[in-house]
Amino acid sequence: MYIVGELINASRKLVGQAIREQNSEYIKQIAKEQEEAGANYIDVNAGIFVEEEPEYLEWLVKNVQEAVNIPCCIDSPSSVALERGLAAHTKGFPMINSISLEKDRYDQVLSIVRNTDLKVVALCMSDKGMPQTRNERVLIADQLVNSLVKNGVKAENIFLDPLVQPIGTNDTFGIEFIDAVEDIRKAFPEVHFMCGLSNISFGLPERKYMNSIFATMAIAKGLDGLMVNPLDKKMMANIIVAETLAGKDKSCMKYLKAFRKKKFEF
C-alpha cells in the first residue's frame, strides 16, 4: 500500500499560518510525524495562495526534504508551481499531483512528466467534468494510461485516481467507485491507484468510520494507494488488516509486524 500523508495542506488553518509566517519547524515536525507513522510520500500543497503558490510550494518541498527521507507528492495544477517544487526536491523520485484529461491541465503537466521517472497522479476527469459511473471512469482511465505511456511515462509510475464523490448526494457513488477500481485493476495490472477518502462521507455523521469501511472495501477490489492522515491509528490499522484479508500480505507478515510494534488501535 502506498500511503501519501495529507497533512501539509495550506487549506488547514495552522498549516496555512505556518506557511505565511515561514515557520519551518512546524512544517518539519508534521512531515517527520507522518513519515514515522508509515507514510511513503508527504503531500505538499500551497494552493490557497494563488499569487505566491510557486514560491511557497518550493519552500514547503525544501523544508520537508530536510526533515524526512522519503519523497514528496507535489500537489498543484500549475506547471510553474510544480517546476519550482521539483527544483527543491532532493530525495528519490517525487510524485506529481496531478494530471487529467482536461486539455490545459494535461498539456501543462505532460510537459513535466514526459520521458521521466516521476510518479504521476492521473485524475479520471475530462473537460466533460467528473465521471458518474464505473464505465465513465474506466474509459477515462484507458485514455489517460495509454496516452501517458505513449509519452514515455512508465505504467508502474501512473497512479490513477477514480475520484471519490459524496454518497450523500447519490446512493450509487460508493459502489460505482469500487467497481471502477476492480475494472481498472483488471485492465491495467501494472498501474497503481491514489485517492483521498473524505469526499465519500461529506455531509454525514461519523465520517471517519465511513471512510475507514470504504477504504477496506476498495482495497479488496485492488486499491493500493491512499492519501490519508497517517497519524490516524485506526485508519492505518484497518488498512493493514484489509490488505492481509485481501491476500496482499504473504504469511501475514505485515500484520504481525504491525502487531508487535503496537500499531493497532481499535
UniProtKB/TrEMBL annotation:
Its EC number is 2.1.1.258. SUPFAM superfamilies: Dihydropteroate synthetase-like. Residues 1-266 form the Pterin-binding domain. Signal peptide: none annotated. The keyword Transferase applies. One of its GO terms (biological process) is methylation. InterPro entries: Dihydropteroate_synth-like_sf, Met_Synthase/Corrinoid, Pterin-binding_dom. Keywords: Methyltransferase, Transferase. Coiled coil: none annotated. GO terms for molecular function: methionine synthase activity; methyltetrahydrofolate:corrinoid/iron-sulfur protein methyltransferase activity. It is an enzyme of class 2 (transferase). One of its GO terms (cellular component) is cytosol. It holds the Pfam family Pterin_bind. Belongs to the vitamin-B12 dependent methionine synthase family. NCBIfam families: PRK07535.1 (NF005719). PANTHER family: METHIONINE SYNTHASE. This is 5-methyltetrahydrofolate:corrinoid/iron-sulfur protein co-methyltransferase. It comes from Clostridium magnum DSM 2767. The gene is acsE_3.
